[in-house]
Amino acid sequence: MRTVRLAYGETGLDLRVDPAVTTVVTPRHHQATEPPGEVLRRALRAPVAGPPLRERVRRGQTVAISACDGTRPQPRELMIPAILEELDGLVDLDDVVVLVATGTHRGNSEAELRRMFGDEVVDSVRIVNHDARDLSSLTWMGE
Asked: How many domains does the chain have?
């Protein structure tokens, strides 16, 4: 048996696999040539397709930002502040909500949200854990 570490949660998950029936494909890691936050900000300002974020959002609109829950590796601590910077001056922070896409997982605790997003984001915008079991919070959009 071989042990493979999966990116899962805060610490990862060890999985034992039989090499006789399993192929493990490991991606090559590349060293970033620029700080990831700068690359993200540039992409928000000059996306590959479509207008920049600031041109898509109109002054006074409400904004929902979807983010993966704690079971998925995602650079939320870089993404959300960069998006909020682009929205600065267009929308009030009271009109921004971050929706944590939990799927059928449990909601994240406040401590987990602070680890995922950082104190500044948690203290400045509303963060909602999606709850797929709460039918009153869902809207039927048709077939």
From this structure: 1
